[in-house]
Structures are given as structure tokens and as C-alpha cells.
From TrEMBL:
UniProt-listed Pfam families: Ribonuclease
Lineage: Eukaryota, Fungi, Dikarya, Basidiomycota, Ustilaginomycotina
Disulfide bond found in the keyword field: yes
Alphabetical UniProt keywords: Disulfide bond, Endonuclease, Hydrolase, Lyase, Nuclease, Signal
UniProt name for this protein: Ustilago Sphaerogena ribonuclease U2 complexed with adenosine 2'-Monophosphate
Organism name: Meira miltonrushii
Classification via InterPro entries: N1-like (IPR000026), Ribonuclease/ribotoxin (IPR016191)
Length: 142
């Protein structure tokens, strides 16, 4: 009976962790339009939370999150406080980006930019319409 109780408690603990809501984040717009693709505030929060989880676990799918370099010629306005460093993570609709060596998934063109230390939202950006292949343009936040 004791081991049944231990197993039951372990199952309940795992279920509680999986059912925990995503961390509420301040300063996130109600949505953003990146080159014609719309992302909700939930999509943006999901991406930042996934980035934080990946950093905490040491898992960096397809090398994300990674450092975002703020180039003045791209005319990107960062709404977060501080002077960086900043990180970027792929935006997806309805789920968090994941990829692995065995199951590569393209990160797509759209990213969320956040403060590397506080995970505060800074901007949403896209490669769509950028002047160079690796460049960005700002998405239209709502």
C-alpha cells in the first residue's frame, strides 16, 4: 500500500506541474502581426516561457534561445527596460517551438525578443521583408 501511495503522489505531482499555467508576463501586447501572420499575447508568452524553460533545463533546440543583436539600421524599437543583453526565440501559433537533431523543425521567420536576464518582453520581429537574409523588421504590435 505504501508504494501505491508513493506512485499515486508522484503521478499527482507530475500532473500538477504539467497543468501549471504559463507565467504571467507584463508588457506583452495583446497581439502582433509579423508579415501577415498574427500571434496572440498567449503565443508571445508561450515563446518567452519556452525560452526560459530551455535555458533552465540546458536544452537549446536548434540553438534557441540565442543572443539578439540590436542594430540601429534595422529601426527596431525595444520596449523593455535596460540595455541588454537580449535574446530571441521563434514565435509559433498555439504552441512553443521545439526542434531536435532527430526531428528538425524550421524556426520560421518570426521571433520574440526579450531581456536575457529578466525575460521581459522587448519586441516581436520578422525576417519577412527585411533588407538582408539575417535582418529583421519590427512586427506590428496591438
Amino acid at each position: 500500500m505504501k508504494s501505491f501511495t508513493s506512485v499515486l503522489l508522484a503521478i499527482v505531482a507530475v500532473a500538477a506541474v504539467q497543468a501549471a499555467p504559463a507565467e504571467k508576463r507584463d508588457n506583452i501586447p495583446s497581439g502582433t502581426n509579423c508579415g501577415g501572420t498574427y500571434y496572440s499575447s498567449s503565443d508571445i508568452s508561450t515563446a518567452i516561457n519556452a525560452a526560459q524553460n530551455d535555458v533552465n533545463s540546458g536544452n537549446y533546440p536548434d540553438n534557441y534561445p540565442h543572443e539578439y543583436y540590436h542594430y540601429s539600421d534595422e529601426d527596431i524599437t525595444l520596449t523593455c527596460s535596460g540595455n541588454g543583453p537580449w535574446s530571441e526565440f521563434p514565435l509559433e501559433q498555439g504552441y512553443a517551438y521545439t526542434s531536435s537533431q532527430d526531428d528538425y523543425q524550421s524556426p520560421g521567420a518570426d521571433r520574440v525578443i526579450f531581456d536575457t536576464n529578466s525575460y521581459e518582453y522587448c519586441a516581436s520581429v520578422t525576417h519577412t521583408g527585411a533588407a538582408s537574409r539575417d535582418g529583421f523588421v519590427q512586427c506590428d504590435d496591438n
